[in-house]
Design brief:
324 residues, alpha+beta, 3-stranded antiparallel beta sheet, 10 strands
Amino acid sequence: IKELPLRHARNEFTSLRILQERRAPVVEAVGLVERAWLDPREEGSAAVITRYLDYAFPYRELITGGDFGPRRAQLLDGFAGLLVELHLRGCFWGDCSLSNVLYRYDAAALDITMVDGETVELHDVLSAGQRYSDLEIMVVNVAGGMADIAAESGGSIDEADMTLGAEVIHRYERLWEELNSDWLIGPDERYRITERTARLNDLGFEVAGVELEPVENGRRLRLKVEVGGRSYHRHRLSQLTSIEATENQARQILADLRYHEAKSAPESLNKAVEAIRWRIGIFEPLLAEIESLPGGSGDTVQRYCDFLHHRYTLSHDRGRDVPN
């Protein structure tokens, strides 16, 4: 619950609701409570109510020794992905910073969700100028946050990680180009639609539509892909097993599912049946063991992913499969 000036609260509530409909990575707005004012000359205020985001935490829990240490690369990827998703949905944020998002562990990555939307402007499509204006605001805000972190740890501003925002932009540009580039293909190369779709799915993005436009007097086709949300693996896992997970958790759990399919029933073609057998025979018993361990409360799906990573590390070091 957050109280704001009335016009800011209304803008945040409306913007979050629209972004939810567009399947953007934002918190879920569930209520707006406006304060009644006797003096009509006063603007008034209102409280925006959002649903609690399970297992989320602020950025300060990621700090080790005055910076983000081993989590730095995950933070860069998470911020770049968040901004790309928002911009694809026509969202000019205007206040991206370390403190205006919530963080969750997502397998070996960080899942980052926008929590503060009072400055949001929504458009059908953002221009390049709007996108880079938003990125410049992010750089300034992140630099201020890093300066605060350095000061709180007893260091000088010269020791602050002032390149963090610029590196987010670098990763943002690479991802934006990957998602928005058009391919030129021959009339008999329509199989490359499958290649393009698979590449986007590997990055976690759904494909909402495909368009083929003739160019060069029909000798070639321009392949344009409409990119959807970054939830491909999450939706795939939910369809197969009804397990709810974040995107990278789902990617890792699907890999475990494929591992057991190949080991136990390589000849089976019924993926739906094998997925249910895996959930009942492998996933649920192991999850119950994990929950029974000390410290078993919290995000057990994340702990399952931690277990999978540990099993892989042991198997890699020993040169053979290590059983559960």
